[in-house]
Amino acid sequence: MRRTPLAGVAAGLALALAAAGCGGGDDGKKSGSGNAAGAGQLTGRGPITLVSGKDRSGNMQKMVDAWNAAHPSEQAKIVELPDEPNDQRQQMIQNATTRSDAYTVLNLDVVWTAEFAANRWLAELPKAQLDTGKLLPATVTTGEYRGRLFAMPLTSDSGLLFYRTDLLKKAGIDQAPTTWAEMWSDCDKVKALPEGKGVDCFLTEVGKTEGLTVSAAEAINSAGGTIVDAEGKPSVGTPQAKAGLDFLVNAIKDGRMPKAALTLDGEGGRRQFQAGKLLFHRQWPYQYDLANADDGSSKVAGKFAVAPIPGPNGPGAANLGGHNYAISAFAKNKASALDFIKFMADVKQQKANALATSQAPTVASLYTDPDMIKKYPFLPTLQKAIENAKSRPVVVKYGDVTAAIQGSVYDALGGKTAPDKALTDLQSKLTQLTTP
């Protein structure tokens, strides 16, 4: 998918983002507010649309086809948005602020719930009809806002370290690094081998996209800091935040991470890893199946494993990712949409999707399911990572906050701004954005 240069989109997005910046009041009376449906008011049956980022597996369509076969009068179709999460969010906001009923079910990044719910762009979901008790507890909170359920967790995510077992073995290393220093030491040993020529040490997403917010949060959290604390106050003016940012800055400065990383998105990094050009790669679980493909598309199939991301003194603090299904407050056929979400969230569907895509499920029992363990032996590692993962800032003005993080951190990584000043500037920006 590519950005679509339609006439009027720029103006529409400007209005949408302006409205997004106004959220936050208890009464929901703000720009962009609509006739949000309560948990007991999900009515209307008929066709629905599932709005989502690009599905590279093709399995989402198979699941929708199964729904359509059983619901001939409530057909669902997929509307695919661009790859980049920022672009997806903007298009969903544009739809909401124009009160359009074109979107029914929204496939939301877990950190968008607060913003969308606060602006009354989502219909509240009836907790009594959705079995959240079977889910990993960490995933349930991502769908809630002020104690009410607005989105059903469908897939979870946590950052993992993908690493080349074949190259480490040749260097006499039999396990993944648990600290940043160990990772750099392992890299030096591999680079000294003939097989290590042309292989970059490490990559995490640092292009000016949502992935940079993820990478910054993981580095800062791993060093014991936070971007926004538990009380919702900015907290990047600390030695721990500085240590996390320094890790990323020095990785590029010292050549541990290629400068080309500044222009790559998540898919660009995946292609680098599958081409055999990376020793260590911080990535989401979805890469596992793609990198293990036996159709010739991957040069590292059978030559890698995954482990927790490293930190300064031991395993790091991975970011909690994933996607939840929510219902647009402006959709017509909300009753059909609720049934569709129940169908997609069912344990059988989640298992089939996980086996087909390596996307992390939210149903807890699937992490000990024999079929799942057989195909994905790293599931216990992933479950622990999800349980211990930390979220990106949970704030109403998320779009503005993530843009501020990306801008300041990117300037530091590119050498435009010293890390100390970048964090000072970021603290000031975040204070303005999070002050009621």
TrEMBL record:
Keyword Zinc-finger assigned: no
Top-rank lineage group of the source organism: Bacteria
PROSITE patterns given in the database record: PROKAR_LIPOPROTEIN
Region (Disordered): 24-48
Pfam families xref list: SBP_bac_1
Family to which the UniProt record says this protein belongs: Belongs to the bacterial solute-binding protein 1 family.
Protein name: ABC transporter substrate-binding protein
Taxonomic lineage from the root: Bacteria, Bacillati, Actinomycetota, Actinomycetes, Streptosporangiales
